[in-house]
Amino acid sequence: MFLSYRLCNITTTIAQIRSSGSLYPGTVSIELILLALPAVLGQAIDPMAQLMETAYIGKLGALELASAGIGVAIFNILSKIFNIPLLRIATSFVAEDISKNASKHYTSGKLEMPSVSSALVLAAAIGTIEALALFLGSGLFLKLMGVSPVSPMYASARLFLSLRALGAPANVIMLAVQGIFRGFKDTKTPVLFIGLGNLSAVVLLPLLIYGFKLGITGAAISTIASQYIIAILLMWSLSKRAVLLPPKMDQLEFGGYLKSGESMILLVHWWHAIGKNPLNSVNYDHWYINGCSTRPNSYGCSSDLFASMACCISACRRFSSFCPGSDCKLLCNTGLHKSP
User: Fold this and answer.
1) Pairing mode, if any, of strands 286-289 and 279-283?
2) Are 119 and 210 in contact, with CB atoms under 8 Å apart?
3) CA nearest 41: which of 186, 187, 183, 200?
4) Count of CB atoms within 10 A of residue 48's CB?
5) 30 assigned to some structural domain
6) DSSP 3-state assignment of 132?
7) pLDDT given for residue 33 in this prediction
């Protein structure tokens, strides 16, 4: 549905441009459309892979699915605070760097730009911080989402979240390199490698979950493996085009990245959403529960089924009389929400 909606919008835009007579080779319009199509496809690949992961874990049982759901929701909320701004900022800074002062290395002939090296170093640092926070603070994050240590899903959810934390550095680097490629006006290369990485996850999921009988641990390992495969392939491709790290660290420029206020805006928005009252009514068809939304494709959570389950379970645990929607009522009735 998401991909169909995006393609429908692009098709409508093309039709409008054609009717106005402004579409011909060499215009900005056709270039933007050609850049947008692979980017839209790339955004559709990941939710499809997560949907397949949901289906495999769902066969293990309601407890396993709920445990993975709460872990994915926490991972997505924390990662989106920093990852999405880094993706956008890297795109604009690399494009600006290319237009102003891009130079080639005197021996390799590759592009040598401070914006590329700075984005990669910053991504590695943010990814490491996220991994440590998720790994060491998994219990705290679960408590914030309403899962107490005596809950039957606490142990498996904490294990799943701790394992997924190991993939945070690869996830951040992957998004940063995607932003760099977009700055190069190349959206096809990231889509190719994202597709290959998610294909590896599709192969590993049934093998590790059922073949080696690892359960949700196997699901976490397959996701981590696919993230590192994508990151390594993207870094390998980028290394052919640009110098990844300058010879001297003082050539890095973090000022532009750190001065950007987008990360702080998202952090304030998220913190406000999970304030004193974890359940806030935003509008009539939309509930924010512990910082994430029950609406599909909302910004607070991923568009997969895990996010809605995590929100519902958290709401059930804190407000046993409130279950928004039939799907959440089904989860509430499983007894996972009951306090001891």
Assistant:
1) antiparallel
2) no
3) 187
4) 14
5) yes
6) helix
7) 81
**What confidence score (pLDDT) does residue 260 get?**
61
Mean pLDDT of 87-92: 82
Sheet with 292-293, edge to edge strand ranges: 279-283, 286-289, 292-293
Q: Establish if 155 belongs to a structural domain.
A: yes
State how far the alpha carbon of 324 is from the alpha carbons of 76, 78, 120, 284, 331, in Å. Answer: 21, 24, 41, 12, 11
Higher pLDDT, 167 or 102: 167
Q: Are strands 111-112 and 103-104 parallel, antiparallel or unpaired?
A: antiparallel
* Structural domain boundaries, residue 40: 2-332
Quote the CA–CA distance of 255 and 214 in Å, as a whole number: 45
Count of structural domains, the chain: 1
Instruction: For residues 102 and 87, give the distance between their C-alpha atoms in angstroms, rounded to a whole number.
Output: 20
**Helices 305-318 and 62-101: crossing angle, nearest 10°?**
120
Per the structure block, which two tokens stand in for 214? 């690892």
C-alpha–C-alpha distance, residues 35 and 56, integer Å = 33
Pure H helices in the chain: 2-20, 28-58, 62-101, 114-136, 138-144, 154-165, 168-183, 188-206, 216-239, 255-259, 262-273, 305-318, 326-332
* Residue 168 maps to a domain: yes
**Residue 322 identity:** F
- What is the rounded CA–CA span in Å between residue 75 and residue 83? 11
Q: Is residue 340 part of a domain?
A: no
Residue type, 181: F
